[in-house]
Amino acid sequence: MIATKWLLGITGGIAAYKAPELVRLLKKQGADVRVVLSQGAKAFVTPMTLQAVSGHPVYSELLDPDFEAAMGHIELARWAEGIVIAPLSANRLAALAHGHADDLLTTLCLASTAPIWVVPAMNQQMWHHPATQANITILKDRGAVVIGPGWGEQACGEIGLGRMSEPQDIVNQLFPMYQPMKEQEANLQGLRILISAGPTREAIDPVRYISNRSSGKMGFALAQAAATLGAQVSLISGPVNLASPHGVERIDVMSANEMYNAVMTKAQDADIFISAAAVADFAVEKALSQKIKKAGATGLQLNLVATPDILAKVAALPKPPFCVGFAAETEQPEQYAKKKLQEKHLDLIAVNDVSREDIGFDVNVNELTVLSQHKTFHIPKNTKYQISLKLLQIIRECYDTKNKIKNS
Ligand code: CTP
């Protein structure tokens, strides 16, 4: 489906003067455009101009009785098939990234499920600031598409990155991108997907534990992407510092044994199990109930015992779900992963080269090689959310092929 109902958000910045031209070009593509102005935007472009070019009233107040009596902000959020924010200021970017609902535009973005494109425009120092870059990464991870900014002379007289992309370039990106993205995405309606994520924590005593560097970001991105594509998702998570993905059932666990019990309870009813958790392979045989004291000790020996291999146990069920593993490797990634695929009887395994600092642990980007018995797929470096969309597409295809073979 190509979006025809576009919500254009305009925030405060000199580039807002280009917004009426953007409305005109969107309308030329057959789009119905409703405009929302932030408070700051009104200093740079008038509602009257935008009303004239869009053919609709322009909205800017969150608490506006006339607007609520007419369309209302929830109705407008539901109406939009695509949201584009141009220009997006550093301030409104921060508000969006952190889920604020302090004006009409940010509230609409929270209340809408429509895909979002953002077109940042700001002073080049502000663009390069780590806070701005972190905020942009948050939006990208959530699936927003960022257009620009461009390089060149700025209104403030500086030269650098931060100029808003030209309206025609924005429209060129909005329209061709929408369809291919949708076509590439798997439809996961009707599928029950179980995902494990994050590390596990194995207690030594009441204050100490053994764990690993997993942040849970890959598993959470997969859960968010799978839910967005229509799946019914259960997420079993070790201790992580991440917000629950929207529309996902989340069950928090601590140790490998707790994760094992939670996964086994859910696995019977799952069509697909994606084991993204970095489960501790060993736990302390008998965690102490009191804190270990160092007084007088010159060393300490801990007796470790193997934890259950959750993924292998799920794959060994009489009627196992389609099983997808992750292999975190520091050397010969594909050889070791292939071995795990075979030994654990998996349908697919995604290989993470954790010796690379630029991908994997605790960062928002990743790059994967995905192996089945007979095929190899490569997913190039991208945000974990975009990687998830691609991985879910591969899973969907392989899942369908397996079912076809089973039923033939
Ligand atoms: N896994 C699991 N339960 C465990 C250990 C691992 O479910 N106790 C799953 C992980 O979630 C991952 C896959 O098995 O999907 C491979 O994990 P990895 O740690 O790379 O492999 P291991 O089998 O533990 O082998 P090794 O640590 O020796 O590389």
Nearest-angstrom radius of gyration? 25 Å
Mean pLDDT: 91
Q: What share of residues is helical?
A: 25-40%
> Under the CATH scheme, which architecture of the largest domain would be assigned?
3-Layer(aba) Sandwich
Category by helix and strand content: alpha/beta
Q: How many helical elements?
A: 14
Oligomeric state of shown chains = single chain
CATH superfamily of the largest domain: CoaB-like
Number of domains: 2
Query: Mind telling me the CATH class of the largest domain?
Result: Alpha Beta
Task: Explain the overall architecture.
The chain has 2 domains: 5-177, Rossmann fold (3-Layer(aba) Sandwich); 192-286 and 303-407, Rossmann fold. 36% of the residues lie in helices and 24% in strands. The protein has helices at residues 19-28, 47-54, 65-70, 73-79, 90-97, 104-111, 124-128, 130-141, 167-184, 217-228, 256-267, 310-315, 333-343, 384-407; strands at residues 5-10, 32-37, 82-88, 116-120, 145-146, 150-153, 159-163, 192-197, 202-205, 208-210, 232-237, 249-252, 272-275, 282-284, 304-306, 322-329, 348-353, 365-371, 376-383. Strands 12-11-8-13-16-17-18-19 form an 8-stranded mixed beta sheet, with helices on both faces. Strands 2-1-3-4-5 form a 5-stranded parallel beta sheet, with helices on both faces. The protein has a two-stranded antiparallel sheet with strand order 6-7. The model is unreliable at 177-183 (pLDDT under 50). Cytidine-5'-triphosphate binds next to helix 12 and strand 16.
